[in-house]
What does this fold into?
Amino acid sequence: FADNLIRFSFYISLISLLIWTSMQINSNFTNNLFTLSYLIPQLSSADDLGQLQSGVRHIIIFSIPEDGDVTRNSGPFYEPGRFVIFILISLGLELYIKNSINKALSFKNFILFITTLTTFSTTGYFAFVFLFLSWLLFFRRFRFINILASLLFLLIVVYSLNFDFLLPKVMNDLDSDSNY
It folds into this structure.
């Protein structure tokens, strides 16, 4: 199961990365995808979802915001945060199952990492760093550099939470049950 999930997420990430990059380069590409989305049945009725997910059009393998803001890569999900969860589960399985530094630096993991960056998900970034540091600390031999990297991570988290926007955003997300 894990190998199939990792392979599937790699291909979905690769396709979404190519589509997202094309959308950044050429606005006509975005317009064409948006037009294409009207030819594809959308999962949006109350019977299908329980509520209408407005603001997003789908082309099965990629979601396009109706407002035209394509700065964040949401892949096949309606929200980039959901996409990064999918990517990080696969990346975690890849790191923990293979447990090899050569496998950690593979092309597949590089694509998953770059796709994580394109989601622009603050929580996704923190989760990625946590995932990678936990892999370093618990699945690699303890070395001074691992402990130093963990301390550096904690300092970055504390420093980042002092940003004017970040702590209120995190607290608002925790208080809002519409995110779950």
